[in-house]
Amino acid sequence: MGRTARDNSGRTPLSWAAQFGYKNSLELLLNKGADPDSKDNSGRTPLSWAAQFRYKDTLELLLNKGADPDSKDNSGRTPL
């Protein structure tokens, strides 16, 4: 699965890594050019998944790599 690959729900490898707090995988994908603001079919970003599961290190990494904390999902919610 490449850094821009998507599953049926529009989620990327970065999104899944953020949901499970896989910081090393996140760093690798981000360093290879993965988009920290990629949205799935619900408009959720990797930052919103990391926030839901409260992975502080993951949140910090995504924010340091330029993830937008004000990005809204399809319901108008922001990650933070």
UniProtKB/TrEMBL annotation:
Matching Pfam families: Ank_2
Keywords assigned by UniProt, alphabetized = ANK repeat, Repeat
Repeats (ANK): which ranges? 9-41, 42-74
| Residues forming coiled coils | none
What SUPFAM superfamilies does this protein's entry cite?
Answer: Ankyrin repeat
Q: Which PANTHER family match?
A: ANKYRIN REPEAT DOMAIN-CONTAINING PROTEIN 39-RELATED (PTHR24171)
Protein name stated in the entry = Ankyrin
Q: Which organism is it from?
A: Glonium stellatum
